[in-house]
Amino acid sequence: MPDSTITKSPLPGLYIVATPIGNLGDVSARAAATLAAADVIAAEDTRVTAKLLSHLGLRVPMTPYHDHSDERTRAALVARMEGEVVVLVSDAGTPLISDPGYKLVRDARAAGRHVTTLPGPCAAIAAITLSGLPSDRFLFAGFLPNKAKARADTLAEFAGLRATLVFYESGPRLSAALSALADGLGDREAAVAREISKLYEECVTGTLSELALRYADAPPKGEIVIIVGPPGEAMAEEADDAAVDAALRAAMADKPVAQAAKAVAKRYGLDRHDAYARALALKEQA
Ligand code: SAM
Predict the structure, then answer these.
(1) 121, 156, 177: which is the final residue of a domain?
(2) How many domains does the chain have?
(3) CA-based, 20 to 30 A from 202: which of 9, 63, 155, 252?
(4) Domain range holding 273?
(5) Residue to mutate, 168, 198, 203, ligand 1, most ligand atoms under 8 Å from C-beta
């Protein structure tokens, strides 16, 4: 199998390199070899990546890169990829997963550059494996919105999905987030995975309301992933109705009733007349 990353002279292009999410021992041999061969490392925070490089005994030029880096910075990196090895890393884990990189990959592809990825640590995937919740079908939802309305709208969108849901969260917001999840999705089985691969790694399971209570007076320290199990059969039906109602209300905020009903019917595979009747009823209640 050709491997352009562990030869002495890798092909020029963009190398997306996953780095540890806590335990530096998780850096792969291929990641270390690729970092060593880089002409430049595009790093979310060069001070954080400097620690990894020092652990590996490497000195490699770095440049800061974010998705809000300007067009010129991105264009300069894409130009360098024609003849040089450009490595993209984030502070921890897999770049692009709630981290910068998407626009750089998009532009590199558009320019016809060689683009490859070195898979490795990702907190979302690690947390799913720890949780004991169904792993056959999941939706990665990143960070929940801060504002109550945006959060409720997001959860209304997810409520009817028969899938495990994965959220990134911080300690101080954990209990409020768990309560919001219980309100928006129903009191499902869930897990809070914390400090994965670090000294104080733990994974606590329970229903969303039990977990919200547990963390209410004692916000935990460190980095956190919340895993929420799929709805049970009865709950799924209830959630479906709630999700449709929420979607209709949201759509009617900026569309006439008929258009809102049409859009929601399409999204949920409903009969358009039924959706219209439900939309009218909701409008009357309002
Ligand atoms: N790109 C990273 C990845 O692949 O997981 C995620 C970056 S995102 C900005 C950071 C969030 O990931 C943290 O707020 C936390 O929710 C989660 N996270 C990162 N490291 C973690 C760890 N060791 N244990 C639990 N969650 C972690």
Answers:
(1) 121
(2) 3
(3) 155
(4) 239-285
(5) 168
Residue from 281, 280, 283, 250 nearest 267 by CA: 250
Instruction: Please say which residue of 121, 141, 173 terminates a domain.
Output: 121
Instruction: Tell me the C-alpha distance between 151 and 41, whole Å.
Output: 35
Mean pLDDT across the chain: 92
Looking at the fold, whether 24 and 61 belong to one and the same domain comes out as yes
Q: How remote is the CA of residue 123 from the centroid of ligand 1, in Å? A: 5
Residue nearest to atom 8 of ligand 1 (CA): 98
Two tokens at 221?
């320290």
Give tens-digit pLDDT for 187-243.
Answer: 999 999 999 999 999 999 999 999 999 999 999 999 999 999 999 855 555 557 888
Q: Note whether 10 and 94 are same-domain residues.
A: yes
Encode pLDDT of 120-163 as tens digits.
999 999 999 999 999 999 999 999 999 999 999 999 999 999 99
Position 23: which residue type?
A: N
CA distance 187 to 209: 6
